[in-house]
């Protein structure tokens, strides 16, 4: 992974941080995205301490806020001419219906629209990097979901499990559509179920 640039969302803890550590150990430049500045800086310090890599950077962004996703894309493009791997890992499970700063139900805003917008904004950087990859972290719960297009944001009826599982199914559908649209460009798009984690 030497000379490869990897951007990982939700990378200040859990699966995202473990992924960033693993990629850094393989020699990749890792760009971590998260909401909390202190946790982001601590994650970068941990990567440097554990891997010896000096190619780790943190960008702050709340992916449920579209203006912050757009700023993240601008910040990334200002620093990196290429993007080899985009890992859309950030996501959350909300117990009550909440709305984002943009007035969108939070599960949908963070788990689906954020990754969609980020991928869309960085697609040219991905195309420049021959054999680039985009990964969407889904979940086994997507198998039980169905899309509620008549009430996608749970305004009429909000159920936290339905909202979460629907968002994870949407990521699978999103990855299939991006794969179709990017066929022949050298960009591979996949979704994955990481399985149960601590």
- Span between N and C termini? 27 Å
In one word, what is the shape? globular
Q: Nearest-angstrom radius of gyration? A: 16 Å
Biggest sheet strand order reads: 3-2-1-4-5-6
User: What's the average pLDDT?
Assistant: 90
Q: Helical content, roughly?
A: 40-55%
Q: Which sequence of SSEs, written as H and E, runs from N to C? A: EHEHEHEHEHE
- How many helices in DSSP terms? 5
Main beta sheet, described?
6 strands, parallel
- Briefly note the structural class of the backbone: alpha/beta
Strand percentage, roughly?
Answer: 15-25%
Unreliable stretches (pLDDT < 50, length at least 5) are none
Total count of strands: 6
Summarize the structure.
By secondary structure, the chain is an alpha/beta fold. Helices cover 43% and strands 16% of the residues.
């Amino acid at each position: 992974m030497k000379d490869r640039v990897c951007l990982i969302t939700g990378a200040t803890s859990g699966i995202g941080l473990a992924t960033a550590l693993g990629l850094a150990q393989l020699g990749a430049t890792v760009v971590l995205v998260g909401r909390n500045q202190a946790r982001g800086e601590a994650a970068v310090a941990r990567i440097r301490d554990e891997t010896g890599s000096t190619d780790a950077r943190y960008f702050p962004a709340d992916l449920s806020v579209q203006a912050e996703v757009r700023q993240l894309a601008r910040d990334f493009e200002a620093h990196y001419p290429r993007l080899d791997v985009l890992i859309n890992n950030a996501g959350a499970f909300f117990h009550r219906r909440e709305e984002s700063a943009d007035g969108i139900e939070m599960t949908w805003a963070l788990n689906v629209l954020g990754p969609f917008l980020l991928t869309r904004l960085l697609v040219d950087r991905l195309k420049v990097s021959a054999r680039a990859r985009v990964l969407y972290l889904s979940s086994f719960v997507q198998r039980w979901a169905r899309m509620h297009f008549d009430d996608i944001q749970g305004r009429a009826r909000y159920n936290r499990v339905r909202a979460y599982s629907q968002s994870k199914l949407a990521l699978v559908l999103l990855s299939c559509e991006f794969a179709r649209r990017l066929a022949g460009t050298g960009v591979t798009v996949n979704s994955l179920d990481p399985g149960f984690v601590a």
